[in-house]
Design brief:
Number of helices: 15
CATH class: Alpha Beta
CATH superfamily: Alkaline Phosphatase, subunit A
Largest sheet: 9 strands, mixed
CATH architecture: 3-Layer(aba) Sandwich
Radius of gyration: 21 Å
Helix content: 25-40%
Order of helices and strands: HHEHEHHEHEEHEHHHEHEEEHHEEEEHEH
Number of domains: 1
Distance between the termini: 27 Å
Length: 483
């Protein structure tokens, strides 16, 4: 954010800090002795499908540590991402704006300096800010480093002839090693805001042998195959054989178990600090992965729930909301005001954002409410169509724009080039049966709400879309991203 815009936020946030002792949420969340948490840690897990985590009813215990944090904190069962694509989803988390507003409409778009980020606001209240990121091109070239004292990304990917090599992203262990070193060398008197991004569940899957052995053993046998086909509704034809399908799922789940193990190690390093209880963790995923659902393995192309539903956990030691489970639909843009309200008066003027604080849902506070009635998402833009002829079922491309709007019960997917779809999420959570023709009134209500939303967002749309540099684009293509 340019310096000319910063002064007013310093004034507003400083005023909020003074008033924080009387703030209901903070008093309940940490303790009356603290105005604000000494440490805030944001963890984003890339390409991690929520229902492959233990606390989202997976077949086996892929994430015992994250499940422990969920049991001890607050678990959100229905967080909807703004866009199931890495850079746009993260841009929404750090700005509280939808992609159409902040101009990051695909991997390869740059976040402009004009948008105020979480790190910038924390830095203005004298928090040290650091980010340790596992994938380079989606973030560094896209200007996500604004507001950070330290922004640590992998070295440039070693790409040759557009082929993927193992050093195209950094493993969770390498990223956590960097973060732990920074934590241990930070002054214990300095508050900090730390962002950790882990990429391992993203293709190419390269899980360590130890976690792969655990995963393969857990998924052995006909019951596991039946679960994937009949409960998760994965299409085996995407893989070609049951053996390939279960082998791939085993690798994907092993990456999740590996990430879980590394997060446990990060958590221990923070716990070893002075006053470890004065810490707030927010853990979320940027989007899911198809894994064969709706005949699609990857992400980005569709807005079905396996791609748009994120896992979200908020945790602090000795939290008064221990074991809280929130079923209602929320949005990942809500994380922006949720994390800012930890350090600022909730009545302070915040930068324009589309989020609402999640604390009223967690603490049952009566003076503030969360009153969103639906969640909104949009599909990434595709600027370069594939060379014809091509099979639409197997190519990562769709013409036109796609949007979704959903309540806890129904979801409408609207396509500017194609037919709309309507799903009953209570009776059909995996969105298999389009009931548009059977429920026209419900479809019309949701479409009207979507039209009103889009009309406003299009008036507020970013107009100066900026591309990342040519070297970063080459790195993105090496990770398999289409333009």
């Amino acid at each position: 954010m340019p310096a000319k815009h910063k002064t007013r936020w310093i004034i507003a946030l400083a005023a909020g800090a003074v008033a924080a002792a009387a703030w209901f949420t903070i008093d309940r969340f940490i303790s009356p002795a603290h105005d604000r948490p000494h440490r805030v840690i944001l963890v984003t897990l890339d390409t991690l499908r929520a229902d492959h985590l233990s606390m989202y009813d997976h077949y086996w215990d892929t994430s015992p540590f994250l499940a422990q944090l969920a049991d001890e904190g607050a678990l959100f069962k229905n967080t909807i991402v703004s866009m199931p694509t890495t850079a746009p989803s993260h841009a929404s988390i750090v700005t509280g704006l939808y992609p159409i507003q902040n101009g990051v409409l695909k991997n390869g778009h740059q976040l402009a300096d004009d948008y105020t980020t979480l790190a910038e606001l924390y830095k203005q209240l004298d928090y040290r800010t650091a980010a340790f990121i596992s994938a380079r091109p989606q973030f560094l070239g896209a200007n996500f480093q604004q507001g950070f004292d330290v922004f640590d990304v992998p070295d440039a990917a070693n790409l040759q002839d557009g082929k993927q090599h193992e050093d195209a992203y950094r493993s969770a262990q390498q990223t956590i090693d960097k973060a732990v070193h920074w934590i241990r060398n930070a002054s214990p008197d300095d508050p900090f805001f730390l962002w950790i991004h882990l990429f391992d569940p993203h293709w190419p899957l390269m899980p360590p042998e130890a976690q792969l052995k655990i995963s393969a053993n857990a998924l052995m046998g006909p019951q596991a195959l039946s679960f994937m086909i009949n409960t998760r509704h994965l299409d085996m034809s995407v893989y070609g054989s049951p053996e390939t399908m279960m082998g791939t799922i085993a690798m994907y789940d092993a990456e999740i178990r590996y990430v879980d193990d590394q997060l446990r190690r990060l958590h221990k390093s923070v716990h070893d600090l002075r006053n470890p209880d004065d810490t707030v963790w927010a853990i979320t995923t940027d989007h899911g992965e198809g894994l064969g659902a709706h005949h699609w393995y990857e992400h980005g192309k569709y807005l079905y729930g396996e791609l748009t539903r994120a896992a979200t956990v908020l945790w602090s030691p000795n939290a008064p909301y221990r074991g809280k489970v929130i079923e209602r639909v929320v949005e990942n843009v809500d994380l922006f005001p949720t994390l800012i309200q930890l350090i600022a008066n909730p009545d302070a003027a915040l930068p324009r954002n589309e989020g609402q604080s999640l604390w009223p849902l967690i603490t049952d506070q009566t003076d503030r409410t969360y009153d969103k009635t639906f969640a909104f998402a949009q599909r990434r833009i595709f600027e370069v169509p594939p060379e014809p002829p091509y099979d639409p079922a197997t190519v990562n491309y769709e013409a036109g724009s796609t949007y979704s709007i959903q309540t806890n019960q129904h979801k409408l997917i609207h396509k500017t080039e194609g037919d709309d779809e309507l799903y009953d999420l209570i009776n059909d959570p995996y969105e298999l049966h389009n009931i548009l023709a059977d429920a026209p009134d419900i479809a019309r209500q949701l479409r009207d709400a979507l039209d009103v939303k889009l009309e406003r967002l299009e008036r507020e749309a970013a107009t100066d879309l900026k591309e990342i540099d040519a070297e970063s684009i080459k790195e993105l293509e090496g990770l398999g991203y289409a333009r």
